[in-house]
Amino acid sequence: MSGNSTYKPRSAFMQWLERRLPIGGFIHSSFVVYPTPRNLNYWWTFGGILTFMLAVQIVTGIVLAMHYTPHVDLAFNSIESIMRDVNYGWLLRYVHQTGASMFFGAAYIHMFRGMYYGSYKEPREVLWILGVILLLLMIVTGFMGYVLVWGQMSFWAATVITNLFSAIPVVGDSIVTWLWGGFAVGNPTLNRFYSLHYLLPFVIAGVVVLHIWSLHVVGQNNPAGIEPKSAKDTVDFTPYATIKDSYGLILFCILFAWLVFYIPNYLSHPDNYIMANPAQTPAEIVPEWYYLPFYAILRAIPNKLLGVTALGASILILAFLPWLDTSPVRSGRYRPMFKFFFWVFVVVCIGLGYLGSNQPVGWYVFFARLFTLYYFAFFLIILPVLGLVESTKPLPSSIDDSIAPAKA
Amino acid sequence: MRIQRKLLAQGLLAVLIAGAVAAATNPAAAQETEAATPPKLSWSFAGPFGTYDQAQLQRGLKIYHDVCSSCHSLSLVTFRNLADPGGPGYSPAQAAAFAAQYKLTAADHFPAPNEAVLSAFPAKPPDMSVLAKARGYKRGFPGFVFDFFTQYQEQGPDYIAALLKGYENPPAGVTVPTGTFYNKYFPSHNIAMPQPLSAGQIMYEDGTQPTLENYSQDIAAFLMWAAEPKLVQRKRIGFQVMIYLIVLAGLLYLTKKKVWRAVEKPA
């Protein structure tokens, strides 16, 4: 990884170890003297926050797994038993449950930040694509975790989502049966979801390593969107970035604690406190909030196969973003037209989320379609065209210069 | 370019306003079958310092024991829980004595109701262990935004208390299917449970008025405790965590300022 390793082990043991495994120098160059642009704002603290959330989910998840029973007759009550009889089980469970929301919230902010400042552009395409893979893995892992609760919403969400594969011509139904391990969502489904829900977080951790590795090769983007040119443009990761990230993380944790300790069920549906009942369909089937925009896109399209295709495309299209955006200028700060369309895009995503939580009737359908259209048009029309027609503002000569006028 | 942008913004605004007007006059939104919104009641366990009212939980337990338990199980709650901190405040001996009337021990769970009674209903009456968290009503926009700040989490008990008071004669022209009863808070209005509580039905031992108002609120509070027995502990620890995090954030902010001073204001 980049950074000038000036690491000189002091103790005899570290000198001995360094000659055999240069881990001290590795940590020193990656997390101490690693140069970070000095103009990073607080939107850049979400990478560290996401790493923290992954650790929180893995640690609480491992302990929860010690007490959870993956069986259709026992799963729901085993979670209640965790809440009632395990020491601080309620805390573990609520941290894990709310943690999923905090994880997704942080990921979405991280992505919007990357989009606004053009962090996906050359040479950071692979870094960005690894991020899209991480999002996909998170979506799958979060969905499977939600099913493990085995409440009404768990069961019916599992039924609806796995059934999406039946839209595939010819082999669709066989795929669904294969996914279920039977002819309906049942015990085999719950067991495989449990197995994969335990496995995938470690796959995520592996991709996170690649993501950070790639980041340390190409270096961080920054609000000015220009590469550091001299030592004046960067600061050492430690103490500058570490202290700023720590402060951002603790602010994030205050929000997290507010949800965990005061309103732990604020983001979830009451129906998921009813044990799964295959014989009774709930009045409404809605996913967790972090899937709502995608759910709205799915339901906006009357044809099932096209709807499922749009759902998949809405996530996969992100991977092509580095090539769909034709503008040579990275940061939205110097792109007046992009800035406008970007904020409309943010409003559209939030709007899709709201529409996803409502029944698709009347005007809701109209707006879901309008917003879905904008979502795809943003990637396929607006971004490619903007790069050709937009007159961008002059870029500062260096990161150092980009800060100086603000202070004058 | 500027004109294009302005036009676009105006067009978008026009579409949004048209949509808002259309949504407000949407006939589907004002269906007759829409259940009434339960009124927000005052609960001792609401808010950041909320705790259960022991006397209220004891009254609620009496209602559960005398009325609800004949049809509704409470399978996840044990008799020893009655003596747990943050609960109804019984001593272990009192909890054991309560269990003894069922010929069970304090470690046992509340027994299931008699199967013969249950067979009278088309569907099994729900277990009440997590009922207060499994019921609620849609808050909608912008209510749910305010709920985040006001910590409103009592939709369940509000709904249960309202439902118990919601039995009334159906409006003219509405027929209630046989075997069901009209309730203005029940989503379909036709509930299989006959009105379970009415004024004067149970005599309270602590002098509280035997009104339907009190019954419904007391049983709803008891069910909230049954569903969330660690609520008091959770909020108490939450306050300590909050203080810790806020102090830590303050210290980190000052440290960050100090560390960055050299970079931000070069001498």
List keywords for this structure.
heterodimer; A: 408 residues; mainly alpha; Cytochrome Bc1 Complex, Chain C; Helix Hairpins; 2 strands; globular; B: 267 residues; Cytochrome Bc1 Complex, Chain D, domain 2
CA gyration radius of chain B, whole angstroms: 26 Å
CATH class call of chain B: Mainly Alpha
**Total E-strand runs of chain A:** 2
Poorly predicted runs of chain A:
none
Task: Name the helicity range of chain A.
Answer: 55-70%
Chain pair sharing the greatest interface: A-B, 46 and 53 residues
Profile the largest sheet of chain B.
Answer: 2 strands, antiparallel
- How many helical stretches of chain B? 9
Strand content of chain A: under 5%
Please mark out the parts of chain B with pLDDT under 50 across 5 or more consecutive residues, or reply none.
Answer: 18-31
Span from first to last CA of chain B? Answer: 43 Å
**Secondary-structure element series of chain A:** HHEHHHHHHHEHHHHHHH
Provide the domain count of chain A: 2
N-to-C SSE string of chain B, H for helix and E for strand:
HHHHHHHEEHH
Placed side by side, the strands forming the largest sheet of chain A appear as 1-2
- According to DSSP, the number of beta strands of chain B is 2
Secondary structure category of chain B = mainly alpha
Give the name of the CATH architecture of the largest domain in chain A: Up-down Bundle
Largest sheet of chain A: 2 strands, antiparallel
